[in-house]
Amino acid sequence: MAPTSTTTAGSPRPGVGLPVVPPDLNAKRRPGETVIKALLTLSALTSVAITFGIVFAVLAPAVDFFKEVPFTDFFATSDEPGAVSAAVLPLVVGTLITTVVALALAVPMGLGAAIYLSEYASPRARKWLKPTVELLAGVPSVVYGFFALFFVTPVVLQGWLGLDVNFTNSWAAGLVLGVMIIPTIASLSEDALSAVPHALRQGSLALGANRMQTTIRVVLPAALSGIAAAVVLGLSRAVGETMIVTMAGGSVKNMSLDPSEPHMTMTAFIATTAKGENPVGSVEYNALFAVAALLFVITFVINMVSIAIVRRFRQEY
User: Fold this and answer.
1) Looking only at Cα atoms, what is the longest distance across the chain?
2) Which of 275, 234, 233 is nearest to 251 (CA)?
3) CA 185 to chain centroid
4) Which residues, other chains included, contact 241 with Cβ-Cβ below 8 Å and sequence gap of 6+?
5) Contact of 296 with 304, CB cutoff 8 Å
6) Burial degree of 85 (CB within 10 A; 0-12, 13-18, 19+)
7) Taking the model in full, what pTM does it have?
8) Mean pLDDT, 10 residues at a time, over the chain (317 residues)?
């Protein structure tokens, strides 16, 4: 029986054109390519070395701290009278409250801005609206702190809304913190929405769905991994922000869940305590690194959760 040939009239003969075996890109190197590769490798290794250096610089004094202070005192709800200010749970509560308030404002506003810029804005409007939103990320955090102290608390919270809040409170700190991270969530989410292929939108519209149904049921699920990464990145920025919470959040260790009261966050504790008054190697000095190490662990866990979410919902087109 004669072998069946798949070659049709007019098609190239087998073996003609590109070779079947992939070309060996390492066979020939251009002049200077080795130097460029070495510089890139050095840059990557330097970043890794700096990361390990930061971890070591934080962990070494933290270990010395826990040699003198038991874990029960560190994870206590209040400081013992006359003892080292080591209770970290009130700081975690303060950080949690301001972060939740910030995300409650930033996620809907940032995601709404991203949907408008990606799905509804004209190219001309998008051209100047997106850079305008991103300008908020360039405002110094100390300016946000003054904005919270002298406008949000007295004018918005006490004046317009009539809330009975303290001069420093977690409402003002969280709201202004949310304003600060809106550009992060909006910009990254808009990039994720814009990366969804237009064929999906056209297919949905061809089936009779309107623009809103297409956005909610097709585009948003397709861009969910990018949106999740944007929210988690904004969350990490909110947890690590220092100046706003130091100025507007207060400096009181407080286990109350009422945002109208002042709360000290972990970053505010580090900023207010690290003034150079504590001798190097003292328990008070090492307490700063213990809190910093816990903050590092929290942000590390947040980033790991973010990576898991992105991998779980990632869709490739």
Assistant:
1) 99
2) 275
3) 8
4) 141, 177, 180, 267
5) no
6) middle
7) 0.82
8) 45 53 64 86 95 90 89 86 81 93 94 93 88 86 91 92 90 93 92 91 91 91 88 88 88 88 91 78 87 90 83 71
Instruction: Give residue 85's pLDDT.
Output: 76
- Which distant-in-sequence residues (6+ apart) come within 8 Å of 215 by Cβ? 115, 119
Is the distance from CB of 124 to CB of 286 less than 8 angstroms? no
Encoded tokens for 290: 């213990």
| Residue 141 backbone dihedrals phi, psi, to 5 degrees | -65, -25
